[in-house]
Amino acid sequence: MPMMSYIDAITLAMKEEMERDPNVFVLGEDVGHKGGVFKATKGLHEQFGEARVLDTPLAESAIVGVAIGAAMYGKRPIAEMQFADFIMPAVNQIVSEAAKMRYRSNNDWHCPLVVRAPFGGGVHGALYHSQSVEALFAGTPGLKIVIPSTPYDAKGLLKAAVRDEDPVLFFEHKRAYRLLKGNVPEDDYIVPIGKADVKREGSDITVITYGLCVHFAMQAADRLASDGIEVEIVDLRTVYPLDKEAIIEAAKKTGKVLLVTEDNKEGSIMSEVAAIISEHCLFDLDAPIRRLAGPDVPAMPYAPTMEKFFMMNPDKIEHAMRELAAF
Amino acid sequence: MKHQELGLSNEQVIDMYYTMLLARKLDERMWLLNRSGKVPFVISGQGQEAAQVGAAFALNPQEDYVAPYYRDLAVVLRFGMTAKHIMLSAFAKAEDPNSGGRQMPGHFGYKKGNILSGSSPVATQIPHAVGVALAGKMDGKDFVTFVSLGEGSTNQGDFHEGLNFAGVHKLPVITFVENNRYAISVPFEKQVASATVAERASSYGMQGVRVDGTDPLEVYRVTKEAVARAKNGEGGTIIEAMTLRLTAHSSDDDQRQYRSSEELEAQKEQDPLPRFEAYLVEHGVLDTAALENMHQDIKQLVNEATDYAEEAPYATPETALQYVYGEE
Predict the structure, then answer these.
(1) What is the C-alpha separation between B59 and B77, in angstroms, rounded?
(2) Does the ipTM exceed 0.90?
(3) pLDDT value of residue B327
(4) Which residue in chain A is spatially nearest to B121 when comparing CA positions?
(5) Does A100 sit within 8 Å of B127, measured CB to CB?
(6) Is B110 in the A-facing interface, judged by CB distances under 8 Å?
(7) pLDDT in tens, B49-63
(8) CATH value of A197-326 in 4.10.410.60, 3.40.50.2000, 3.30.360.10, 3.40.50.920
(9) A268-289 per-position pLDDT tens digit
(10) Sequence spans of domains, chain B
(11) What is the number of other CB atoms lying within 10 angstroms of the CB of residue B325?
(12) Is domain A3-183 classified as CATH 1.10.760.10?
């Protein structure tokens, strides 16, 4: 099983799906000849030609809207937003159109499309190349929102997203692209959408998180393990709709829950996870639910001091874990 | 005779007139139902039937795709929807093929008839039409896509983004702007900075044509030409059909508040229905008896559709939970 980076796993997933199904195609800004600004579509233009790896005009609403139309016709488009921060002009197409297509037509029409977008900070991207936008779309029934944390999951989840019958927003942490490496099978496997995954078993405290924060939490958990504190780590993988069963089970298991996100705290995915735990597990808890998140400022600043202050890291998570374990 | 010069048979122009009249009578009935408290909302196409029929009859309902907007009753009738379908939608009944009673009337969608489902935010359907055209091109198909909208909607970003995309890829998209001169209450002069909508086409590498939208044969002619260009690989066309809005924007609007009584009276003189009827009589296509029969047939059809829809069941409450996602 080859070792592969997170971004190469994403590229491989698209390549395999395009080989499997001639209806799958890629469209976005600079995805063709250049292979994308992060090189996520590298090699696809050469292999599949410009009809299936389409460089579009710089216009996000059209990228998503055209993908919706093509999906309604029967294609399987994968639309790339160059940065998640630039998805805003396409919000109407995603929320008013894609998310509601099946429902509003009483199941007559549907639009199976994937919108891929690199998100997250820690790459000196400043306000408009660092944001986490998942909470803006969560709470929109009709959408599925997937955020993988490992190369293995990235490949399996993207393949599942392409085959899904409904619109999927697929957010890829851009710092994870080349930072994370892992074993990725070359065979055709799927990681199911809607299922969380226990990334580490533990009996003392539970950490629920997603994306790059899973990686940071695993590092922090290793440090605690040397002091005999065992941390259960749940990777949400799909942040909407949430895997409520897995969340409830993990919260009940240890009774001490730390929720971690890189996004701003108030109104984040973790706010909903906290609500689920409050509704279902109040009498199983041994400590108040703790949320560790980015500060409630508009976005991540450029200067390294302020970026570091905003950004999640293993030290912050370790500190919060130790506090919770000692409660 | 003009219609024969355009290659239209007598039967075809009778069919065109029938569709215009059916659209008008259904529309009028929905207003009656609204004013008598039986249906909560109507949005109208009265005054725009000639434009809609002229364009729709230049298309092929078996192959072409349409992304209509909320006034396009005559277009969807041409693409397979029936009087019964329209009334089921007006009454929001379970059998409504557009949405099963989920959407307001005028939010058309019917996969069997290649009618893309639409929403309320305007101009969002343009990129969808472009996407269908792109998909058709990928598959080597020969159809065109037809997308319609009002002139106010040509100010939306999706109009520009969608048509620029279509222009770059020379896609067979016919954009049909039904310019009734008002976006709810705001007149054309305060909506659009250019003298016409048609001239916006030059930005997208397309032809733009302005046409008298009260003349179904003229609209047919320019749409037929647009279809020919599209199929010949010459890309899309913007057709700006100059039409009338004989009713208020919707049942919740009163246009007497912002349009003078002189203006409202004057536009009645231009109503395309009597004019086309006169053309057909003048050229011996229809006689008075045939017209009388047609009126009677349509009246009966509208009555039956109304009765059927009024009696038809609503969706059960819990079906509101269905079809958020594909059923496993």
Answers:
(1) 13
(2) yes
(3) 79
(4) A96
(5) no
(6) yes
(7) 999 999 999 999 999
(8) 3.40.50.920
(9) 999 999 999 999 999 999 999 9
(10) 2-321
(11) 19
(12) no
